Automatic annotation (TrEMBL):
Keywords: Calcium, Copper, Hydrolase, Metal-binding, Metalloprotease, Protease, Zinc
GO cellular component: extracellular matrix
An example Gene Ontology molecular-function term: oxidoreductase activity
InterPro entries for the chain: C2_dom, C2_domain_sf, Di-copper_centre_dom_sf, MetalloPept_cat_dom_sf, Pept_M10_metallopeptidase, Pept_M10A, Peptidase_Metallo, Peptidoglycan-bd-like
Binding-site positions, Ca(2+) 1: 895
Residues reported in the UniProt entry to bind Ca(2+) 3: 875-876, 892, 895
Protein name: Matrix metalloproteinase-2
Length: 964
């Protein structure tokens, strides 16, 4: 018998299952058997997801797991041999595991690259165990020399694959930095795979058995939580208020008709719902139409989104919260209409999962195919000429819709939004460099057809609410993955207002016009985010699952930068516009003959492109705003819109430097216009910038750049090599190794600069920029300040790079800690900031004093959005993650941060630690201009997670600065 939940058919229950639990389990069992109800799928999904999450966490934190360790490289190892660099290798060991692994030996190298992976099997590792790396210098005639050691505490990771590199300083007398990563593989659970209620209980038994073997106390706590959930679930089943939202394409014919009947009733004015008039009566009488037209519940709700009301939450962090409140009110009215039709009101708003391209033979919901428009009598006479009344409903065919969904990479973009590690980056297109949830939502609108393509009129089609129901479903998944989202939202809004007093605090703004029926007050963001959905009377049958993390190349993009969708997508009549932006990748040599295939339907464009020597890349959406009359739109920043063109470059065998981009804009009614002609067609106030090709610093890390390859490429007129050389020169100039301006010519000066960089980081200095040199350039940096003063441009002087005190000796430096990410504990962060300041204060002839306002501070420490100035923003996480100036220090809010002195249970995924970066930036703020050549120093250029002590040479450098 297992020690978890028992199988009831065996006739007995474990001691941790009470009589109340037994009764509750019977209620759940009976509900499990019920078919065709809006109530039942939720019960199954909710209990399954709860059990999966709680047991998965318990197993991963209590039970040993397989650990795969990848030893990647080292930087700046100390020289252990008398006549050469070290012959380095690494020995890896795991606490409680007898096995050890040793890398190969890399001879005579200060920055060796091993890139080897080892796996620790049984007994495996638990969260909190120590993984240790010992670095040695191999000696042929004597005992191998210790170079240094570093270790890391195993952290529970939600994803099975970890691609983020860890940079750690070697300790125990060692000098240098080790680069590695690790991944955990927990014992597989079968909770979600359970085919019946009985097998579900059996699989829970097995998981709890496993936890009990290793942590009985933890198992007892899990049992108590399961017991509470069982009773809560049974009570929810008995409560007829909670309904289940499921994909509209999975509804039975009977439930589909019931749902459509309720929607149709919502479209009726109250006088028709009361039986006093018919819709035909209203349509036939101008007087009745004037009195009762546009008074239906459906009109009121539809008007909140676009026309005729003035509410707007697009491109702001409250986008998903506002729409959640919207759907709560819509669903409440839907259930009311169902009851008026003689039913029990157990009807839910279904979602349309536009990331699942086809379900039951349907792409768009078949339920709407017979819905040709809004009923006669719906509008007043004055508005019968509006497009929403005259055009009717013109949804895309399934063939067209599927083509659009696939070519917009809808499934990939939805899943990617769950990977965003800050709430504001997930929530809206305020995130200009990532993949927010709002972006695939925009494309779902455009893929659906009229009027869903129109911001003004989208909500007049019931599909609008199914789209947003799916958005809410993804948002609910994100809130479960990131439980600190509420605190993040609140803190991020404080940061916005602190940096720009003209914007409003979206956390504090009520979610007008939607009211909580329990209080009759407008919903607040806090209320809508902190209230479990079942307390809002709904749950989902299933939440989206995270896709496996895959190792993949960084994308190359067609990037439409700073598109002012809120204010600058207007036609000649000042109507708001929205566009699909379809991108073609054309070899530069063929651009003169390119003709936009606007005479063909969009689904034929990929075939046409392949026949004409170019490639169709896909599309993204510029979803328009309401213009200057909208307060929210006036606060909205321009957005970036992108299409991944990586596959298309491979398809035509070109580099990003040898192509041009061509764009066709398709508006909300399906008119296709080349981007170059958009103002000619729609007027000067319709502005979409031409896209540019954007991507990582180097198009290829494998392409070797040298004087030899430069000569060969010049003979072949290879633009790609010249452009890559310009990128290389930009980097070398930016960080102080190259005095000239980028010109694409790999000559003697560039070769010398490459050698200087290689010497600086400990790579063999051959003047050739190959894979190892390029990867060294792409290591995560603390900031974008120069590394060295080997060479300067003509406009620079030596004094520009000398250490000069920012604050006079003996002065008092007042400092202020500004708003910070909500997932960081305030008290712990303050302790860490104080510790960093004290480390420098011990050796600087300065007094430091904390003050309570920005205006009183000489040194401001805060967070801000550095996406615009981050030259490495397309090189993945990191790049330059902070910046300092005479005014203070700013951490990049786009990154996820964690603390060193206090280990929280979970900071989120792929974090940077505040303390080592703050120590580094404080050095710059005090006056240390350039970076240390030693990567183990606090003032080293590259991010190292455990580099939190000042070296003797840095203390001497500080003293020398003040002495001079």
């Amino acid at each position: 018998m297992g020690s978890g939940l028992s199988v009831l058919t065996e006739g007995e229950l474990k001691a941790h299952i009470s009589k109340e639990d037994e009764q509750s389990l019977e209620v759940i069992r009976e509900a499990w058997k019920t078919k065709d109800s809006f109530l039942v799928p939720q019960r199954q999904s909710e209990i399954v997801e709860f059990l999966q999450d709680i047991l998965e966490e318990a197993v991963e934190e209590s039970c040993p797991m397989q650990v795969s360790v990848r030893v990647i490289a080292a930087l700046g190892l100390q020289k252990a041999d008398s006549f050469s660099e070290s012959d380095a290798y690494v020995r890896v060991s795991l606490q409680g595991n007898e096995a050890t692994f040793t890398t190969k030996i890399i001879n005579n190298c200060r920055s060796p690259v091993w890139d080897q992976t080892f796996t620790f099997d049984a007994p495996g590792a638990r969260a909190g165990d120590t993984l240790t790396f010992d670095v040695f210098d191999s000696d042929f005639f004597s005992k191998d020399d210790d170079i240094g050691r570093t270790s890391v505490l195993i952290e529970r990771r939600r994803r099975g694959i970890n691609t983020e590199s860890v940079f750690q300083q070697l300790l125990d007398g060692g000098r240098g930095v080790l680069v590695f990563n690790y991944a955990l593989a927990a014992p597989p659970l079968q909770i979600r795979e359970s085919k019946s209620f009985e097998s579900l209980l059996q699989n829970c038994d097995a998981a709890l058995d496993l936890v009990t073997q290793h942590d009985p106390a933890r198992a007892s706590g899990v049992r108590a939580r399961i017991s509470d959930k069982i009773q809560t679930m049974a009570a929810a089943i008995a409560n007829d208020r909670v309904v289940t939202r499921q994909d509209i394409r999975t509804l039975s014919p009977e439930m589909t008709q019931r749902y459509l009947a309720a929607v149709e009733r919502m479209m009726m004015p109250q006088v028709v719902r009361d039986g006093e008039r018919t819709m035909e009566d209203l349509a036939a009488s101008p007087e009745l139409l004037e009195e009762h037209g546009e008074t239906s519940t459906f009109f009121r709700l539809a008007g909140y989104h676009g026309w005729p009301e003035d509410f707007c939450a697009h491109r702001q962090e409250n986008f998903p919260a506002w729409h959640r409140a919207y759907l709560v009110e819509y669903e409440r009215e839907l259930r009311k209409a169902d009851r008026e039709l003689g039913n029990d009101g157990h009807i839910a708003l279904p979602y349309w999962d536009f990331g699942e391209y086809e379900v039951n033979g349907q792409v768009l919901p078949a339920a709407y195919r017979d819905l040709k428009g809004l009923p006669e009598g719906f509008f007043k006479m004055a508005n019968l000429g509006r497009q929403v009344a005259t055009r009717g409903f013109q949804l895309s065919s399934d063939e067209v819709a599927r083509s659009k969904l696939e070519r917009a990479e809808m499934a990939e973009n939805l899943s990617a939004s769950l990977e965003e590690n800050n709430h504001w980056r997930h929530a809206s297109c305020e995130n200009t460099i990532g993949r927010p949830l709002e972006a695939p939502h925009n494309s779902a609108h455009m893929a659906s057809g009229w009027p869903v393509t129109s911001l003004a009129y989208a909500a007049f089609h019931p599909l609008f609410y199914n789209i947003h129901c799916n958005v809410d479903r993804y948002y609910e998944k994100y809130l479960q993955l990131e439980p600190n989202s509420l605190e993040e939202f609140e803190a991020h809004q404080k940061m916005r207002v602190d940096s720009d007093t003209s914007v409003s605090n979206k956390f504090e703004e009520p979610l007008k016009p939607f009211k909580n029926p329990e209080t009759d007050d407008f919903f607040s963001v806090h209320e809508i985010m902190s209230t479990p959905t079942h307390q809002l009377d709904y749950v989902f049958d299933a939440l989206p699952q995270l896709r496996p993390a895959l190792l993949s190349e960084l994308p190359t993009l067609a990037l439409f930068e700073k598109v002012d969708v809120a204010l600058s997508l207007r036609d000649q009549e000042d109507n708001m516009k929205s566009f699909e932006l379809h991108v073609f990748v054309v070899p530069a040599r063929s651009q003169e003959g390119f003709q936009h295939p606007t005479d063909l339907p969009a689904e034929e464009w990929p075939r046409w492109a392949s026949e004409h020597g170019c490639s169709y890349a896909g599309w993204a959406t510029a979803f328009g705003g309401k213009g200057r009359s909208c307060k929210n739109c006036k606060e909205t920043r321009p957005v970036n819109i992108s299409v991944d063109i990586s596959e298309q470059l491979r398809a035509i065998d070109e580099t990003r430097h040898n192509v041009v981009l061509k764009t066709i804009c398709v508006d909300e009614v399906g008119e296709a216009v080349p981007l170059e002609e958009i103002q000619q067609r729609f007027g000067e106030n319709c502005i979409i910038p031409q896209p540019r090709v954007a991507g990582p610093l180097f198009a290829s890390t494998d392409l070797i750049l040298s004087k030899t390859t430069a000569s060969a490429s010049a003979e072949a007129s290879d633009l790609g090599t010249s452009a890559e050389t310009s990128q290389l020169q930009w980097y070398l100039h930016q960080f102080g190794f190259y005095p000239g301006k980028p010109d694409g010519d790999f000559g003697d000066q560039t070769e010398a600069a490459v050698k200087r960089f290689q010497q600086h980081v400990g790579i063999f200095a051959d003047g050739i920029a190959g894979p190892i040199t390029k990867r060294a350039m792409l290591m995560k940096r603390n900031d974008a300040l120069p590394d060295t003063i080997f060479e300067m441009s003509e406009s620079d002087t030596h004094e520009d790079f000398e250490d000069v005190p920012k604050f006079p000796a003996g002065s008092t430096v007042t400092w202020w800690l500004g708003p910070h990410p909500g997932y960081l504990n305030s008290a712990h962060l303050e302790e860490e900031v104080t510790a960093a300041i004290n480390l420098w204060a011990e050796h600087a002839p300065l007094n430091f004093e904390r003050v309570e306002s920005r205006s009183a501070a000489k040194l401001v420490i805060t967070w801000g959005d550095q996406a615009e100035q981050n030259e490495f923003k397309f090189d993945g996480r990191g790049g330059a993650i902070a910046q300092s100036s005479e005014h203070g220090i700013e951490f990049d809010i786009n990154e996820r941060w964690s603390l060193s002195l206090h280990q929280a249970k979970r900071y989120g995924r792929n974090t940077f630690k505040v303390l080592p970066v703050l120590l580094h930036e404080l050095g710059h703020t005090l006056g240390l201009r350039t970076h240390s050549v030693d990567p183990s120093h606090v003032m080293g250029a590259y991010y190292v997670s455990n580099r939190i002590k000042l070296s003797s040479s840095e203390i001497a450098r500080l003293n020398e600065m003040y002495a001079s």
